[in-house]
Amino acid sequence: MVAAQTHSFPSSSTSTPFPSPRTPASLTPFANPYTHDCSSLINFTKSSISFRSFKKHVLIQCSGPNSPSELGNPFSEANSQTPCKLFSFFQEIGLGDKETESLVAKVPALRSTSLVSLRDRIHSLQSVGIQGIALYRLVTKRASVLTCEEVDPLMSFVRDELEGKIEAVQLERLLSATEPRFLVGFDQKVRLLLHLGIPGEKIAHVLNNVNLTKVICLRSVEYIEGTFTFLDPFSGIDLILRRPVILNYDLETQLIPRVTFLKELSGGDEDATGTVLRKLPAILSYSLEHVKGHVHLLRSFAGLSDEQIFKILLVFPNVISASRERKLLPRINFLKECGLDSSDVFKFLIKAPLFLGLSFEDNLVHKLGFLVKIGYRYRTKEFAVAVGAVTRTSCQNMQRVIELFMSYGLSSGDIHAMSKKHPQILQYNHTSLEEKMEYLIGEMGREVGELLAFPAFLGYRLDDRIKHRYEEKKKTLGEGMSLNKLLSVSTERFSSRKTKKRSCVNYL
């Protein structure tokens, strides 16, 4: 392991906004212009218009036990910092007089810390991206970051070993929210994450997307190891990489209860539970009460068993994110109104689970309107089947499909009849459908009306199935072959028939 090292930063006035103090004979870059000659200003004539406010300003900055009059050399690094120098120093960061007074009162160590040390700490913070307004916020919220010894090792580790890849906003949150004593061991715990399986190239991604105070600083090595051990059977590393925020959750009160409930719902199937988690790692962000509420609704209102509910989660875990009041209840009720019993509802949701998640105003309402226009009767089983079929297509594509059929002379009744036999035709890509219809009419010389008898023709691949088989069979059967027999026979059977034909030809 590489030991964390601190780096010194240049202190010359040409390379840094925080230059070293100059000799007493000249005005320092940090000095407040009002404090250039404190004694002469105090003796300034009272006839001055701004005397009172000016005198008050000077007395605040230059009076007290550390005033220049009581110190041999106000710029000596061996002495405690004078208020004059501290005020000038913090002005460079953007702090006003009252803010500086408050900080010094809260963190007395600021008086006894040399300006060189303060400047070095500022430069160290800037080297990892904490600059400008972020630096101002940090110092005003937790001024101890300028004096505590725990900060430099952390900054060196972030800058050198993590190559400065931790976002400045993350570091600002960490330093402002964490007591310095809890920063100790940060580097060791990050190395532990690497040891437990987080890839080196992904460690910055993980650290930039978790609560560093909670996940790293306030948890013990044993706690971190326990979290990884618990998640391991469910491809824990993959889950963490896809959703690092999982590490924010408490192991005992959040992760274990949520995963255990899903596992119980699956009938104890650990692999199946892992499949659900990998499909939707965000499912762990929902509280146990939230998930239980969804499961209870599907049990009581839809009449589904735990086994059926888990199978729905396997194909569509986002059902947990759907609102119970706005989506689950009204849509299951719609299926019931269409005449579907609990068994039918389960079959419907397995085939068309997106029905529970789609927007009604932006999606479903338009599709329902299209279906009614081509002849479907509202609240019937065949209507529910058609609704399920069109959940996987966009409203625009569905409209273009209907327009395409009509452009080839098919009526609304024809489209209705075709979709009853093969509901998927309403979800096929309109461009692909047009290519197949052109081939059917132009190359094969068939009538578009043949689609009424065999609409499944539109579901086969044009190049791999339709063209290939047509070219093969045209040599022996001519152009009048049945579309159904041409395409619906299995690949194995089609190949065996072709082989037999060739054998007979060779024999003759």
UniProtKB/TrEMBL annotation:
Bias (Low complexity): 8-17
Protein keywords: Transcription, Transcription regulation, Transcription termination, Transit peptide
Highest taxon in the source lineage: Eukaryota
Pfam families for this protein: mTERF (PF02536)
GO biological process: DNA-templated transcription termination
Region Disordered, residue ranges: 1-24
GO molecular function: nucleic acid binding
Protein family membership: Belongs to the mTERF family.
Protein name stated in the entry: mTERF domain-containing protein
